[in-house]
Write a structure and sequence with these properties.
By secondary structure, this protein is an alpha/beta fold. It contains 9 helices and 10 strands. α1 (26-45) links the parallel β2 and β3. It has a single domain, classed as NAD(P)-binding Rossmann-like Domain (Rossmann fold), CATH 3.40.50.
Length: 265
Amino acid sequence: MQPERHFLPAKLQDGPIRLLLVGCGGNGAQMLMGLASLDTALRAISSRSLQVTVVDDDTVSEANLGRQPFYRCDLGASKAHTLVERVNLAHGLDWTAVHGRAPGAVDVHTFDVLVTCVDTAAARRAIGAAIAANPERYDRDPPRYWMDLGNRATDGQFLVGQPPRAGDRADLVRLPTVLEYFPELAAEGAAEDDAPSCSVAEALERQSLFINRVVASHALALLFELLGRGSIGHAGAFINLASGQAVPIPLPPNPNTTAQEAQAA
């Protein structure tokens, strides 16, 4: 028996894909740079493209230099506007930057794919609440996918899920979202560790120099398989730079698979 695979819905197999990137700091900035390459690839192999909106309410600080793709001339500028203007100029795109905080600054229901690169459990809970806040509209035009990235000093993870819909058929296998896969994040009062660093040296003590680049590269590779090739064989991965390991997060089991087929797999 062939391994389980998740296939891209027909709705996203033709035309532009509306993608919202929330956060363009450590992981988000690396994701944005890679999304420009993904857009180029989609245009080359299909008639599709990415229409990206980036939202972040932060400005560039001294501590961001080194791990994030900013320069000294960017200090004090909006992260979202700085990076989106740079990508648009380099690739001839017209992507949108919003200097603000999601979900208040944007309507998450107007996007096909949501990518969150946020620092706190509270920010993830706010996004999840916004997705489910208007059931009638959500069932008509929801985000089809929610990819979340997170990391600590030398390890991180990424996961792509599908927000639940009231009209889902019972026999459909849905990819759990980050709040479902990590239920501790959904609990109010979850521990947070989002204190800002004051210098490049302090930032490097808190996080490895290339952890964001590695996590984002793996996440982008999965997005390319899903959006570009049409299917994926895993839902994400745990990555550890200290041990050199990358452990995939398996797709949820298909309840329609017989016990004999599961054993054969």
